[in-house]
Design the sequence.
């Protein structure tokens, strides 16, 4: 798998990353459609961009990493998401650590949401 991916010619590291993610999904049986937001006709910065992507996809909720709370909730709790009535959830995943080294490395369990949006 890796040899085939690395032998391809990519126009950017982002394109290579997308190819790797697509192949991993295929190998582990994830069949959801994958999209690149750079192909969406939306604009904005930070949380307004994320909200515009949600609106484009007709999404009523958004799952974000906990670190993004610093800019999303900078002015008001929930930021632009709350102003646009989009439910905002944060994921605060902490990998188990044993004696200073990481153990049992794996992906968190897949989370299934609105199938048409994935």
Sequence:
């Amino acid at each position: 798998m890796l040899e085939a991916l690395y032998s391809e010619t990519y126009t950017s590291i982002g394109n290579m990353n997308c190819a790797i993610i697509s192949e991993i999904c295929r190998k582990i049986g994830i069949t959801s459609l994958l999209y690149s937001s750079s192909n969406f006709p939306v604009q904005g910065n930070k949380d307004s961009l994320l909200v515009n992507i949600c609106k484009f996809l007709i999404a009523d909720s958004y799952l974000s990493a906990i670190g993004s709370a610093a800019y999303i909730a900078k002015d008001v709790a929930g930021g632009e998401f709350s102003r646009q009535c989009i439910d905002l959830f944060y994921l605060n995943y902490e990998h188990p650590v044993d004696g200073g080294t990481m153990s049992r490395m794996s992906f968190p369990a897949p989370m299934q949401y609105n199938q048409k949006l994935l």
